[in-house]
Write a structure and sequence with these properties.
- The chain is of the alpha+beta class.
- The protein has a domain at about 75-120 and about 160-315 and about 360-475: Up-down Bundle (Outer membrane efflux proteins (OEP)).
- Helix content is about 65%, strand content about 10%.
- It has helices at about 1-25, 45-50, 55, 85-95, 95-110, 110-115, 155-220, 225-260, 285-295, 295-315, 355-425, 430-465, and strands at about 120-125, 140-150, 275, 325-330, 340-350, 475.
- The longest helix is centred in the last third of the chain and has 70 residues, at about 355-425.
Length: about 475
């Protein structure tokens, strides 16, 4: 009987000594990947509840470090580059968007953490002096404790985490709009340089014709040699401009490749000459309404307001106590006829430090008020941005029409007339060169206005959160 008693005591002792090791020092798998919980919008609770542990380790963003910018051209199969081609590639390659997606996943992963209880505590102890004693029973106690937040606190923590995660998703959409505008602006700069090179080549060709006319008339003794020399001067100036334009093309090319996460000196196909421009038929009020309804940064701020509101409610709940449920299996009851006893208990904190809690509540309320004021400020900024972009686009469109209908045809006719008059000896060579300069300056200015119109349309699309449709109402050549 005594041997059996010692065996039971030894079993109790081994259980107590082994228990902390099991709880505090679990075996860790070195290959375990970080837990990331990708969730769908507006389906957070359902997804988290129904997600298996294996699915919790899957992430939409691979945890890898890229070796660096790519070394292969992105558009090697294209004959001409368009703005849509560039936008599509930028949204698929730019690391800024990848970083935002990873940040969003990290934010969503906070929700299961926020609504989870703390790990339970398990403990045990015994009285060494009772081992082998004939006076008292072997004294052993095994205890289990679980902390329980006050009513509603877990839900509010989850609401706050969910609102903050939703805000990061809106930030992704805002980054997409920014990248789309950046890609379009880079393309229009690239397109403008291509058109400037085209104009410069046309100017060199026409100056070559002028030089031939001057040489013919000089040989016939009709004009002085100065006309031929003046032609050489103008040709030299245009060749100097060619060098500058080639440098500008390489710089715009580097900007595009950087947006694509590629080496900056990789080649690009020439830009498409015919660029579609969608006519804006909406008025300022309609555009402002659309912007207030669709702008992701405004929606993100509204999610942050929800998070701050949950923080205020949570600060109020901190005035109520938290609890800790206790259960124990105890043999410290003495007396040879006493057996192991089960015990249940409840522990709670006393929220007596009210000044600290009032300060935390005031802080949360102030942050909420600040966020609401930021929301109103952003609405005002959106209204101004939309109206400004709308008026600027209208201005560029009107100037383009003026160039197409009046300025360009007049300068071309002026050059034709001047060339005929020079050949017939009615005007000097400098007058002919002046007419040529006016024509090519007008063409350069037209392409500048055209590029500015496209940039302003891209800005209007961003500030209204508008995704352009594939259909176009007008093509500018």
């Amino acid at each position: 009987m005594k041997i059996q008693t010692h065996a039971i005591k030894s079993l109790y002792l081994a259980s107590i000594l082994g228990l902390p090791g099991c709880v505090l020092f679990p075996q860790v798998d070195d290959n375990l990947t970080p837990v990331v919980v990708p969730v769908e919008r507006n389906e957070l609770s359902t997804v988290v509840k129904n997600t298996t542990p294996k699915e919790l380790t899957e992430s939409k963003v691979e945890n890898q470090i890229d070796e660096g910018p790519g070394k292969l051209p992105a558009f090697s199969t294209l004959k001409n580059l368009t703005a849509d081609d560039l936008v599509r590639e930028v949204l698929g390659r730019n690391p800024t968007l990848t970083a935002m997606i990873a940040a969003s996943e990290a934010a969503w992963s906070k929700y299961p953490q926020a609504i989870s209880l703390d790990d339970p505590n398990v403990g045990g102890w015994f009285a060494p002096g009772t081992i082998g004693s004939n006076q008292v029973n072997f004294a052993l106690r095994v205890e289990f404790a679980q902390k329980l937040p006050g009513r509603g606190k877990l839900k509010l923590r989850g609401d706050k985490a969910q609102a903050e995660a939703s805000a990061t998703e809106k930030d992704i959409e805002d980054v997409r709009l920014q990248l789309t505008e950046d890609a379009k602006n880079a393309f229009f700069d690239f397109h403008l340089v291509d058109r400037a090179i085209e104009v410069n080549e046309g100017s060199l060709k026409l100056l070559g014709e002028f030089k031939q006319n001057a040489e013919t008339r000089y040989r016939n003794g009709q004009v002085p040699q100065q006309d031929v020399l003046q032609a050489d001067v103008e040709i030299g100036l245009q060749k100097e401009r060619s060098i500058t334009l080639n440098r500008m093309r390489k710089v715009t090319q580097a900007r595009i490749n950087t947006l694509l996460h590629l080496e900056p000196d990789l080649s690009l196909p020439p830009s498409s000459r015919d660029i579609p421009l969608e006519i804006e038929n909406r008025n300022g009020e309609q555009l402002r309404e659309e912007a207030r309804a669709n702008r992701p940064d405004l929606r993100s701020l509204e999610d942050k307001i929800r998070a701050d509101d949950a923080a205020v409610q949570l600060a109020r709940r901190e005035f109520s106590p938290d609890y800790e449920a206790l259960a124990a299996y105890d043999s410290f009851w003495q007396g040879m006829d006493k057996q192991m006893q089960y015990q249940l208990g409840l522990r709670m904190n006393l929220p007596s430090q009210r000044s600290r809690r009032y300060a935390a509540l005031a802080e949360a309320q102030s942050k909420l008020a600040q966020r609401k004021a930021e929301h109103k400020k952003l609405e005002d900024q959106i209204n101004f941005q939309v109206q400004e972009a709308f008026e600027q686009l209208k201005e560029s469109t009107q100037i383009m029409e003026l160039f197409k209908k009046t300025t360009l045809p007049a300068t071309e006719a002026n050059v034709r007339e001047a060339q005929t008059s020079y050949i017939s000896g009615k005007i000097p060579f400098l007058t002919l060169v002046a007419a040529q300069k006016e024509m090519y300056l007008a063409r350069d200015r037209f392409y500048q206005v055209q590029a500015e119109a496209f940039r302003r349309k891209a800005t209007l699309d961003r500030v209204t959160a508008n995704v352009p449709t594939a259909e176009v109402a007008k093509t500018i050549k």
